[in-house]
């Protein structure tokens, strides 16, 4: 449930992304391909790739880009070489030429989508409902699409924002602050220092989220390093929240079925990003409708618990199927129902206990015990709401006097206990012992003795 399967369908991947958005931990890692999808039409190349940016900037700075050796060389090294050649040609120091390159990059990324594209992709991003966005882009296209709903953050800012505002963390800097732009080799040396905030935060964010890669290649060292750190440096137990990495990959002839690459990333192929977003919109609408219906049902159940009548209490006591269904619902949505359920359960327990006051009604102790055991076996100790456990443990203590085969005890309750006590998990038994010891409930300690 908390990860995508090894061989998922497209529907499964899109549904997982939507449920992550509802959970509140879906993040988007956005690269230059996204800016290109928003700005560039056939015959119109407004947004530029990293290489195209350096080519244009070097030309503006009077440097022949074609004469720079680029085979087997990364773009940061190419950027450093541009600065070196510019410094030599103009008698500058390297730092001055680097600042000039950064200002040029800032000028060349002054991009704004037209009205139609802005409306279209604004709808797409809003439907995605990301908790955060991390981008290597210098431009402010994402912020123009999320006007009033996002805040741009530079590489020296913390990845944080106020409630309801999406933080857009520009890992390599923002064009409005050229001095912070990270583009040359020397910039990256600082970026990858041990314990450097950006790399640690990126790795932890991926570990704590479902991450969607849009317009971005996983061959980039930033992504690969963060993925490696999230899985190997910051190790931990299996997450109890949605957590996976999905890349939307543009292909001329896309595969319908998603797959995992050698890095474990789920790849979903599309001809263009609009195709992905249209498919996601359809799934998102369905998931939202299902979640709305579920919330309405939970609200109705919570109201019924608060105003429980004698009929509902009797049904919980006497109808095991009804009781099992309610406990199953509680297990899935305890955070929404636990308060009302504990109140309701106390009514049921008090009613059941009152039935034992009838002379010779030893079978009622058995009914009481079955309710308590149903509760104690419905949750793992790690997921047991504390207030509910306390109520159930006290109920077990109260009936412990009467579970046995001696005079004045319920033999049928004893049979139930002997048959079902093995259903209690070791963790629950340990906590029952702790509860009994804390309150000196000796009958309860004796009941679980030897388990």
- Name the poorly predicted regions: none
- CATH top level of the largest domain is Alpha Beta
**Subunit arrangement of the protein:** single chain
What is the averaged pLDDT score?
87
Radius of gyration: 31 Å
How far the N terminus sits from the C terminus, by CA atoms, comes to 32 Å
Largest sheet geometry: 8 strands, mixed
Overall strand count: 8
Q: What portion of residues is helical?
A: 55-70%
Strand order of the largest sheet: 3-4-2-1-5-6-8-7
Number of domains: 3
User: What portion of residues belong to β-strands?
Assistant: 5-15%
Q: List the helices and strands in order.
A: HEHHHHHEHEEHHEHEEEHHHHHHHHH
What form results from the Cα inertia axes? elongated
The computed structural class is alpha/beta
Treating each run of at least 4 consecutive H or I residues as one helix, how many helices? 19
CATH topology-level name of the largest domain: Rossmann fold
Give the name of the CATH architecture of the largest domain. Answer: 3-Layer(aba) Sandwich
Give the CATH superfamily of the largest domain. Answer: TPP-binding domain
């Amino acid at each position: 449930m908390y990860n995508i399967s090894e061989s998922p369908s497209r529907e499964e991947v899109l549904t997982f992304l939507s449920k992550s958005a509802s959970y509140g931990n879906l993040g988007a890692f956005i690269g230059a391909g996204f800016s290109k999808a928003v700005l560039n039409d056939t015959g119109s190349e407004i947004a530029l790739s990293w290489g195209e940016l350096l080519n244009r900037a070097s030309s503006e700075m009077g440097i022949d880009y074609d004469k720079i050796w680029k085979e087997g060389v990364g773009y940061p090294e190419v950027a450093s070489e541009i600065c070196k050649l510019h410094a030599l040609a103009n008698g500058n120091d390297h730092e001055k030429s680097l600042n000039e390159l950064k200002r040029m990059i800032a000028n060349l990324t002054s991009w704004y989508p037209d009205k139609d594209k802005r409306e279209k992709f604004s709808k797409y991003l809003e439907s995605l409902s990301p908790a955060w966005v991390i981008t290597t882009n210098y431009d402010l296209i994402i912020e123009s699409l999320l006007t009033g709903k996002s805040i741009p953050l530079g590489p020296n800012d913390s990845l944080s924002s106020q409630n309801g505002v999406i933080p857009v963390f520009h890992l390599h800097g923002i064009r409005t602050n050229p001095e912070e732009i990270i583009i040359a080799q020397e910039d990256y040396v600082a970026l990858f220092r041990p314990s450097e905030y950006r790399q640690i935060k990126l790795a932890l964010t991926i570990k704590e989220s479902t991450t969607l890669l849009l317009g971005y290649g996983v061959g980039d060292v930033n992504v690969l390093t963060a993925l490696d750190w999230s899985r190997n440096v910051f190790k931990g137990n299996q997450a109890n929240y949605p957590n996976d990495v999905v890349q939307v990959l543009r292909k001329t002839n896309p595969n319908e079925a998603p797959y995992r690459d050698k890095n474990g990333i789920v790849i979903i192929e599309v001809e263009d990003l609009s195709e992905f977003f249209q498919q996601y919109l359809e799934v998102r609408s369905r998931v939202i409708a299902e979640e709305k219906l579920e919330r309405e049902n939970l609200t109705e159940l919570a109201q019924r618990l608060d105003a429980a009548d004698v009929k509902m209490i009797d049904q919980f006591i006497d109808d095991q199927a009804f009781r099992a269904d309610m406990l199953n619902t509680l297990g899935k949505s305890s955070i929404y129902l636990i308060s009302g359920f504990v109140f309701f359960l106390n009514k049921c327990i008090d009613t059941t206990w009152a039935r034992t006051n009838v002379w010779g009604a030893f079978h009622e102790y058995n009914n009481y015990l079955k309710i308590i055991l149903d509760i104690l076996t419905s949750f793992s100790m790690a997921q047991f709401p504390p207030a509910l456990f306390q109520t159930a443990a006290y109920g077990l203590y109260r009936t412990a006097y009467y579970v046995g085969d001696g005079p004045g005890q319920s033999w049928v309750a004893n049979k139930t206990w002997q048959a079902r006590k093995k259903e209690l998990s070791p963790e629950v038994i340990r906590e029952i012992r702790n509860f009994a010891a804390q309150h000196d409930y000796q009958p309860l300690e004796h009941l679980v003795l030897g388990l």
